[in-house]
Amino acid sequence: MARYRATLNMEYIKDAAQGFRWGVEKAAELGYRYVEPMVHTGWDLLSEVDFFHSFSMEEDPLLMKEICDRAGVRVSGISGHSPLMKPEAAVPRLTRAIVFAAACGAEFVNTDDMIKPEWMDDEFAWQMMRYTLTKAAMVAERHRVNVCIEPHGTFSCTSKGLLAIADLAPSPWINVNFDTGNFHLAALEDLYEGLDRVKDRVVHMHAKDISTQHSARERGLVTGTPVGCALGEGEVDWERVFEVLEPLDREIFLSVECGRVDEAERSLAFLREVLGDRLIE
């Protein structure tokens, strides 16, 4: 039977325009015991003045861990999204995020293929992704961190494409972060059938619900979205999601991806109600 841990993607404070430390402390106050931070390279003005939640990888990773430890939460994974078809950017960013995650005690780094440039044909794109993931897999194996491919781009929003990307660099450390909201919005395949086809590789999930209004506006037109609504208040049938995952005999992190503090609070209450003792706290 699948078991779950709830974590909170730090995108939830975008609307609040607050910094990383504030977001971690608020997550703990809401009852979360894990967070999924977003990281960037270089220095960002908004993050430096605590108007944005992203954490610079120029900082000591143990500073991130220290902030979380003081609040009583842990880093479950890192949002290290890197354009796999752009190895000059993705290789240094993704490998650095893996090392950063390991230093914080995190188990996952999430990434995706992103959008194929117009000048690049499909064969070229797959070659570039294979190179990027081969380099990333070597680092992931050393540090024992899962690199998780998320449906969020040109090829990843079908089960076939998602698995094909994950298999480009055969490694037990390359797996799937299934984003329910992105898969729903892309509308290239039934959400629950797609999840069933990839479930054996799912070790992490972006638990993202999509409101009816959002779905009507963008479904079939996009391959993803930053955040959704509170869980249980949108188009995703969570009973069916958990029914698909039920046979898996392992823990899966559910990273809530919503856009506001109140939505994060309601999402955790929803998971507690639906999952009961299957939610490990």
UniProtKB/TrEMBL annotation:
The keyword Transcription is assigned to this record: no
Keywords noted in UniProt: Isomerase
One of the record's GO molecular function terms: isomerase activity
Domain (Xylose isomerase-like TIM barrel): residue spans on this chain: 24-273
Record carries keyword Isomerase: yes
Pfam family, one: AP_endonuc_2
PANTHER family in the record: BLR5974 PROTEIN, HYDROXYPYRUVATE ISOMERASE
Protein name: Sugar phosphate isomerase/epimerase
Organism: Saccharothrix syringae
